[in-house]
Design brief:
alpha/beta, TIM Barrel, 26% strand
């Protein structure tokens, strides 16, 4: 299946694919398809690998919920010692429900509403990563009304040029919507430091996602360190944290995974020189290779000189291929003697509903199962009810046991929030 720095937790045993010690075919038959299957061992391995890499400096690893926010995954990471990074009121609610202490939670995001900022302050989160002077002023006002002092970090746009598989997942370049422009940070920091109900406790950046090169991290970290040095010169000495975000890439196909030893050599000395505590916010790196999507083949058909495999999973279960042009390895549950070049498509009424195009696969037949690899990041969290489809179940495997950790939606779930007899109101 997929490859990673360590292991994906998936292997073919006796000709059948397994997640750790559990047959994927057994899960498919007992739980139904489509179904996401997560490997607990992979999640632990990836977290511990990153934690060891950062060990030369004081640090906190804050897993970012936007990659995958299942409660069972969050509790697993909580037990390992992780904090979390959230970007909405809903993610804050999930983190608190999963048992994270408020001071293990960072609240980020480019467009926080006043309600979300108030929820973060009322919860007492470790810090809020503010993205503009205007946001800092709102935080100060909300904190003043509550008689508290808010802990704020400034998200800097380091304006670093980098390579990324898709424009949509670059966030640290000049002109992007994220963060405070590099040449405005000192001014915003001075404004923040002068407010009565805000403590400036950190500097933050996030370069983007699925990054394999280390040099942009070095350059971005050096830029944050230079801002910190300038703030010290100006008498601002309240900073505690240097947050360099996440974005470390994983292998989906032929990508080179990031060299973590080189990361430590190039980035950590700069962090150590500041004396600040390092924060990293990994998401995809921890969860990306830790899950597979099992789908059943519904039909085989030929049209316009092409062969199609129609599966019961499509863009509503895995949006990345159609949205980003992303590659996910797909394998048959049982290896076949022959292969064929096919398009693997889903049941959604869109021509863009596909999982793979012109892919050579085992010559699989209706009723058999396909396994889509490396779907842990931005799989279930981007799933939708388009075409009134029910979102699939999620399963966590730990050794030789498994559990359904998110139930498959029902038809009633699709209608649950609709109001059968709405209360009409006058428009004037």
């Amino acid at each position: 299946m997929g490859q990673s720095v360590l292991t994906t937790g998936f292997a073919r045993v006796g000709g059948v694919l397994q997640c750790e010690g559990v047959s994927l075919e057994r899960i498919a038959r007992e739980v139904g398809t489509p179904v996401y299957v997560y490997s607990a061992a992979t999640i632990r391995d990836r977290y511990e690998l990153l934690d060891r890499m950062l060990s030369p400096v004081p640090h906190r690893v804050h897993y970012t919920l936007k990659a995958s926010s299942n409660a069972a995954v969050l509790k697993l990471l909580r037990d390992l010692g992780a904090g979390v990074d959230v970007v909405s009121g809903g993610e804050l609610h999930r983190a608190l429900r999963a048992g994270f202490a408020p001071d293990d939670i960072i609240f980020g995001g480019v467009g926080k509403t006043e309600r979300e900022l108030a929820e973060a302050l009322d919860a007492g989160v470790l810090l809020i990563n503010a993205e503009s002077e205007a946001e800092v002023l709102i935080i100060d006002r909300l904190a003043r009304h509550r008689g508290i002092t808010a802990r704020v970090s400034l998200r800097v746009n380091p304006e670093v040029t980098l390579d990324s598989p898709h424009e949509y997942i670059k966030t640290g370049g000049k002109g992007h919507k994220f963060g405070i422009p590099y040449d405005e940070v000192i001014h915003v920091a001075e404004v923040t430091a002068g407010l009565a109900n805000v403590d400036l406790v950190g500097l933050d950046m996030h370069l983007g996602s699925q990054l394999s090169r280390i040099d942009p991290y070095r350059e971005g970290t050096e830029r944050l360190a230079s801002i910190f040095a300038e703030l010290q010169k100006r008498g601002i000495d309240t900073l505690e944290y240097l947050d360099i975000g996440g974005g470390l890439g994983v292998r989906y196909d032929t990508e080179e995974p990031p060299d973590l030893r080189r990361f430590a050599e190039l980035v950590l000395p700069t962090v150590a020189d500041t004396g600040l505590q390092l924060i990293m916010e990994p998401g995809r790196f921890i969860i990306g290779n830790a899950a597979a999507l099992v789908t059943q083949v519904l039909y085989r058909k030929r049209s316009g000189g092409k062969d199609y495999v129609v599966a019961d999973a499509g863009m509503t279960e895995l949006l990345r291929p159609s949205h980003y042009g992303a590659y996910h390895k797909i394998v048959a549950m049982h290896e076949g003697a022959e292969t064929k070049t096919v398009d693997v498509v889903g049941p959604v009424c869109e021509s863009g509903d596909f999982l793979a195009l012109d892919r050579e696969l085992d010559d699989i037949q209706p009723g058999e199962y396909l396994v889509v690899c490396d779907v842990g990041a931005y799989g279930y969290v981007m799933a939708s009810n388009y075409n009134s489809r029910q979102r699939p179940a999620e399963v966590l495997v730990d050794g030789d046991r498994y559990a359904v950790v998110t139930a498959r939606e029902t038809y009633d779930d699709l209608l649950r929030l609709e109001i059968a007899q709405p209360e009409w109101r006058e428009g004037n």
